[in-house]
């Protein structure tokens, strides 16, 4: 019967859809606000409790009594029939059936149970209604500390509400709002009237999600650092110690910050603290490599080599560590070891054209260094000059196939073409190279004209 009903729902709008009396809810909020504006009533804890309950009810009006794994048959009893349905809607790489209600979108599993939902309409869009509820309960507690047991259930409901909102937003890949909701759940638990168990993982997950969101919204990095520091201050760390890596990211990625130098130092100190507690965490080592090789003021990259090599002994297939190792040696102008490390990277993961390019780039830098050293020498004969030049040109030639490989993988990347143009011009007298120069010079001019 349910299968038949589902087909009918997808085929046409249904009657008895979800109903919310928005005007009645708003009237209750106005009444609650009027009560606290009354000079006599606003000194009573009961007035503020009533306001808190009114705002909580308004916040949950679209999702009241919904829960994950709830059978769709129960949802239909509670919310009525959906307006329409859509099979195979993908959220966070998982396919669900989407059911459209006036106030939310509901997503169910193949077993017809609730997986998550997205609220599409609120009683008021200008304020976080649950946050006003919390403020009201806190005010009630300030007026009368004895009412903590009376509002204990209300505060726990707020925690559960924010937690479920965080889960729903994360499923929808709305990371900023997921982080906000987890932070808000933690804020409820830190309120003086809360008597339950405080979950210190909330600021950890909030900080992690802000760090993820920061890739698109840089302002989230500041919020992420605040949340992760809050978790650490409470004594919380995840099992692997990744919290230190995410906090480093939040500091390091604030590239436009006026306190960039201070943030780099914070990033370094966070990673060093994390490494002391979690010496086997390779993410932390990778982060240190990144910090040390990004700015000479942070420290000497040579100090990291032993640390990275020990990490590679534990995880020799970690391409990120090999990449970092290559960067360290490049910063030390040890081009042979840079090349050795990056060749290991492409052996593990050959999919990134820039890794191939950097191998060639390191060969070019090695040849440039040889050429510079050669120009400082006192050459005694033409034969000696020719022999040394042949050695240098041979190193330049070693660069060519790697940069060509990068170009083959990404034909319109300007940096690749520009480098190939310059390199083939230098090698133009070698057999078969002149036609390559003409090809890359033509492509360079075409790409340049498009910029």
- Low-confidence residue ranges: 1-15
Query: Which sequence of strands runs across the widest sheet?
Result: 1-2-3-4
* Shape, per Cα inertia axes: elongated
Oligomer: single chain
Mean pLDDT: 91
Order of helices and strands: HHHHEEEEHHHHHHHHHHHHHHH
Number of helices: 19
Major sheet size, sense and barrel closure: 4 strands, antiparallel
- The Rg value, from CA coordinates, equals 31 Å
By secondary-structure content and strand pairing, the structural class works out as mainly alpha
What amount of the residues lies in strands? 5-15%
Question: What's the total count of β strands?
Answer: 4
- Helix-residue proportion: 55-70%
Terminal CA distance:
62 Å
Provide keyphrases for this structure.
single chain; 451 residues; 4-stranded antiparallel beta sheet; 19 helices; 6% strand; disordered N terminus
Question: How would you characterize this protein structure?
Answer:
The chain has a domain at 362-450. The protein is 65% helix and 6% strand. The chain has helices spanning 2-11, 22-37, 45-59, 72-79, 129-143, 148-171, 175-190, 201-213, 219-233, 242-252, 260-277, 282-294, 305-314, 319-331, 335-348, 353-375, 382-409, 414-426, 434-450, and strands spanning 84-91, 94-100, 104-108, 114-119. The chain has a four-stranded antiparallel β-sheet. α6 (148-171) packs antiparallel against α7 (175-190), α7 runs antiparallel to α8 and α16 runs antiparallel to α17. The chain is elongated.
């Amino acid at each position: 019967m349910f299968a038949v009903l589902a087909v009918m729902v997808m085929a046409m709008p249904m009657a008895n859809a979800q109903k919310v009396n928005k005007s009645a809810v708003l009237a209750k909020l106005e009444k609650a606000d009027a009560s606290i504006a009354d000079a006599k009533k606003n000194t009573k804890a009961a007035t503020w409790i009533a306001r808190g309950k009114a705002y909580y009810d308004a916040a949950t009006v679209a999702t009241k009594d919904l829960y994950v794994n709830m059978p769709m048959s129960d949802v239909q009893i509670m919310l009525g029939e959906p307006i329409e349905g859509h099979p195979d809607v993908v959220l966070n790489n998982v396919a669900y059936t989407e059911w459209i209600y006036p106030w939310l979108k509901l997503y169910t599993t193949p077993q017809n149970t609730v997986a998550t939902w997205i609220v599409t309409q609120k009683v008021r869009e200008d304020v976080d209604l649950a946050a006003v509820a919390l403020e009201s309960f806190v005010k009630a507690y300030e007026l009368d500390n004895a009412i903590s047991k009376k509002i204990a259930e209300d505060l726990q409901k707020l925690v559960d509400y924010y937690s479920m909102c965080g889960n729903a937003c994360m499923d929808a890949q709305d990371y900023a709002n997921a982080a906000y909701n987890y932070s808000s759940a933690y804020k409820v638990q830190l309120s003086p009237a809360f008597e339950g168990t405080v979950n210190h993982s909330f600021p950890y997950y909030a900080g992690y999600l802000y760090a993820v969101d920061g890739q698109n919204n840089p302002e989230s990095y500041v919020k992420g650092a605040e949340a992760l520091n809050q978790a650490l201050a409470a004594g919380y760390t995840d099992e692997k110690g990744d919290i230190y890596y995410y906090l480093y990211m939040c500091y390091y990625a604030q590239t436009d910050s006026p306190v960039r130098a201070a943030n780099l130092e914070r990033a370094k100190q966070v990673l060093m603290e994390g490494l002391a507690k979690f010496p086997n965490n390779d993410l932390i080592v990778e982060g240190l490599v990144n910090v040390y090789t990004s700015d000479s003021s942070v420290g000497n990259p040579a100090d990291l080599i032993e640390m990275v090599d020990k990490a590679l002994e534990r995880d020799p297939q970690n391409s990120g560590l090999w990449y970092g190792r290559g960067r360290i040696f490049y910063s030390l102008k040890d081009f042979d070891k840079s090349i050795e490390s990056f060749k290991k990277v492409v052996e593990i993961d050959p999919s990134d054209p820039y890794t191939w390019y950097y191998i060639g780039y390191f060969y070019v830098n090695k040849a440039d260094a040889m050429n510079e050293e050669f120009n400082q020498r006192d050459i005694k004969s033409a034969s000696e000059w020719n022999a040394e030049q042949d050695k240098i040109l041979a190193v330049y030639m070693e660069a060519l196939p790697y940069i060509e490989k990068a170009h083959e993988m990404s034909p319109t990347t300007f940096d690749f073409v520009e480098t190939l143009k310059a390199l083939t011009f230098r090698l133009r007298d070698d057999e078969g190279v002149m036609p390559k120069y003409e090809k890359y010079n033509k492509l360079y001019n075409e790409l340049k004209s498009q910029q």
